[in-house]
């Protein structure tokens, strides 16, 4: 019998929710918990696709995962996923009729322009048609039936199918899989044929594939039964949960929180949007980066993202996000913790602005966000924002870069080294007991320090909660960089620069006014927030919103 292709195969799962199970609950669980957990194992699963039947038959839903090597499905890495499932998963899956199949991949033929769904945008991928055909073999009378059927597929049937308009790919697979053994059940050959949403199925080319002498011989001699299902692709997994749409339809009682995988989902209410809190693992060094996705639940809603400053967390944006949800309910809102807030890679390595920009690109990849409507960053996040526009201009429509310098100086580098020494003093207590207070006082406008004590306390506690080791390695991104010449090369991205009037006692206003004209061909406008210092969106969120709302 034909051998599997380099051990590759597929996990093929059909599902039929029982009456009484909310489809929103079923989809939210599968999209935000079950699927992403598997996509976090790229050494096992290269993709995860969800289909809905279009032929009126049950089961209505199919999930297909390409497997890099079927032997991986026998390892603890995979088996522990099922053994350690959450109570919610156990409860939900108990209300679903699930059939799991393991297929070995035998052969593939692709159109010259074929691109796997996971490499497409959602708009490009969703709606693709899948035709799944399984045939049982007459092995009792024809021991070589499998080889004969596969030969027909390879040499005649699939080459004819490839002439159908919209044909993308056909794959020949076999069950039982090699990991199940030859006694696991009836031997079948499965073919999966993929087409564009607009295609020629049912047309003359398709009819020609169904009426040849060789096909008649194969079905009369080697095949005993045939099954055929048709599906439409409706969801492509990434390793990061992102389904706000179904979450928004659930009651508050459906809120979910789990330590492993690290995931919290909060359904929407009449006064607030749904929220997903989870994490990604960077592909370049395996660092965990937490993120929060909220706002407009539509998967096609434009996305605004925020990049925080050194020593703060994604919650530094809380006051602004509160305004944004009211003023711009059309936006999805993405926040994340810059590397160094919680942990560092192993072995440790200094952060760079290039690494920080690529961290954001990795987050967008994991969330399958092709392009941001706006990116807003402050301080180190401001430098990250500008550098993201430099390195990834096709993924960004506009940006707001706040309270940063386009180039560092030797004096600044030495200042960061001195702050590291303070943070590490007394086994790290220096960050909480000394650096946090001094930093916030340096950041904030005198008006904030005098009249907004609760804001000062909030920010001081946030700074004190940073990892000392993370600070040591992440602040090195602000050593020895210069973005001024590269700024000139930015094209197709609008930029706005914003600064608090008291940042650096006014020195940063002058510095930013000096380099704003270097952006692209026309430069960027500079706007100043009154009675604010280094973090104007925290000190004076209403004032900050006033200067950026027309741009965003």
Q: How does this model look, in words?
A:
The protein is of the alpha+beta class and 552 residues long. The protein has 2 domains: 9-236, Alpha-Beta Plaits (2-Layer Sandwich), CATH 3.30.70.100; 290-548, 3-Layer(aba) Sandwich (Rossmann fold). The chain is built from 20 helices and 18 strands. Strand 17 (494-500), helix 18 (507-515) and strand 18 form a beta-alpha-beta unit. Helix 5 (145-161) packs antiparallel against helix 7 (213-221), helix 10 crosses helix 11 (380-391) and helix 12 packs antiparallel against helix 16 (468-474). The chain is elongated, with a radius of gyration of 28 Å. The termini are far apart. The mean pLDDT is 95. It comes from Neurospora tetrasperma (strain FGSC 2508 / ATCC MYA-4615 / P0657).
- Beta-strand portion reads 15-25%
Q: Mean pLDDT, as a whole number? A: 95
- Spatial gap, N to C terminus: 61 Å
Helical fraction: 25-40%
Sheet with the most strands? 10 strands, mixed
CATH class of the largest domain: Alpha Beta
Query: Quick one: how many beta strands?
Result: 18
Weakly predicted, low-confidence segments: none
Strand order of the largest sheet: 9-10-11-12-14-13-15-16-17-18
Radius of gyration based on Cα positions: 28 Å
CATH fold title of the largest domain: Rossmann fold
Oligomer: single chain
CATH superfamily of the largest domain: Alpha/Beta hydrolase fold, catalytic domain
Broad shape = elongated
Number of helices: 20
**What's the number of domains?**
2
What would you say the CATH architecture of the largest domain is?
A: 3-Layer(aba) Sandwich
The secondary structure category is alpha+beta
